[in-house]
Design a protein that fits this description.
By secondary structure, the chain is an all-alpha fold. It has helices at about 15-40, 40-60, 85-90.
């Protein structure tokens, strides 16, 4: 997204678990929006914590879920990583 690499969800999660976590993530994101619209800072902090928890559970944040020793380039700009040529070819 906009040149930034993002880690995908852990493919080892079974479909039911993944679907439940995605549901939780979407509910938390809606809660962030509602908190922002109502200017409720306490609710916003709580909702953002719920987003973070769901993303950790999905494997999109936190410790890496792969075990091949490959580095984690999550949130890095693609042009600053070994994937630069691949990313440039997408355009």
């Amino acid at each position: 997204m906009r040149g930034r690499l993002w880690r995908k969800s852990n493919p080892a999660l079974d479909e039911a678990t993944r679907a439940g976590l995605v549901h939780d993530l979407m509910a938390a994101r809606r809660a962030v929006g509602a908190a922002l619209r109502s200017h409720d800072e306490t609710a916003e902090r709580s909702a953002r914590a719920a987003v973070d928890a769901a993303k950790h559970a999905l494997g999109e944040r936190g410790p890496v879920w792969w075990d091949d020793g490959a580095p984690d380039y999550n949130r890095h700009m693609a042009h600053n990583t070994p994937y630069a040529a691949w990313f440039a070819a997408l355009s």
